[in-house]
Structure formats: C-alpha cells, structure tokens
Amino acid sequence: MELVETIEKRSSVRSFSNDPVPDEVVNEMLRLAQLAPSAGNLQARDFVVVRDPSMKAALATSAFGQEFLSEAPVCVVFCANLTRIRNYGARGTSLYCIQDTAAAVENALLFLTASGYASCWVGAFDEKEVAKILGLPDDVRPMAILPIGRPRDHGRRTPRLKLETLVHSEKW
Question: How far, in Å, are 7, 98, 161, 171 from residue 165 at the CA level?
C-alpha cells in the first residue's frame, strides 16, 4: 500500500476480531514507532505492551469504560519519558516529549493500517490510574493507548474541515 493510500485509509476502529496479533507485527510496529523524529534525538518515549486480559480490562476501566480496549488482542501504551528530555528544561517535559510520543503513535497507526491491522488513538484515560496499573516510574507519563487487532468491521473515515478554513498565509 502506498503512503498516501495508507493515510487516506486509516481510521479509528473500536471493534476487533479475536485473531491474535503476532509478536512480529507488534515488534515491527514498535521498531517503526521508534524511528519517528524526536527532539534532540533523545527519543523520550517508551512503550508498554499489554496482552494480559485482566490488565486490558483495568486499562479499559481507567479509560472511562472504553471496553474495546479489553476486546483488542493487544494494547500498547505509549509513554513520555521525562528523564530523557530534562536537558531541554520545562519545554522538554511539557511539550517535546509529548510531540515525540505523538509522532511515534502516528508511525504506529500508519504501519498497522498498511499491514491490515487496526487501532484507535485513545487519549481519554485517568493518567494516574494507568501509571499505577502499569507500574510506571514517576518520571514516565502515559500519553496514548493503542488497542490493536484485526478489525471486526472497518471504521469509517470521519469528515474533515475544508482545508481553506485551516490554512492561513503569512498571517492569521
């Protein structure tokens, strides 16, 4: 699948088949996520792979009842590593590590789409609860949860604003 086609095809999927996601797929997704750009090449992001049903259920509860997290064969939590970005000061810990993590998430989503898998970028969750469930150190913040699996049904592409309403030339 070509890049443009992959970007156009990607959608948020919240219903997954029971087909397992092979380790090779998860590992390749993580490898490509790690290739995303990062501030100062500090790579201030870490990944927690969750396959255990009780852990996925706990993540679903912490995500305000988004039960499709439990349904997915695997969930990957993308985390910002604040220690790795501290030499950039407050801007590093409040922005750059979030950007680094977001770039990695997008790489992962595009790889999954191109490989016939699906996901949904989940950002609505109790951050402290997720950190507790995963045993994260104090200097690691969960930023996104990606449930991953074969789609039970295909998500639909949601409408986008017209580009003309978003683009400004020279000034606002």
Answer: 21, 26, 7, 14
pLDDT tens digit sequence for 19-28: 999 999 999 9
Greatest CA span in the chain, whole angstroms?
52
Q: Name the residue range of residue 29's domain.
A: 23-150
Chain position carrying tokens 């309403």: 165
Other Cβ atoms within 10 Å of 17 Cβ, number: 14
3-state secondary structure of 171: coil
Q: In 15-170, which residue ranges form alpha helices assigned H by DSSP?
A: 23-34, 53-62, 68-71, 89-91, 97-114, 127-134, 163-166
Number of domains, the chain? 1
The answer to whether residue 168 sits within a structural domain is: no
21's tokens: 């996601």
pLDDT-based confidence at residue 157 (cuts at 50, 70, 90) = confident
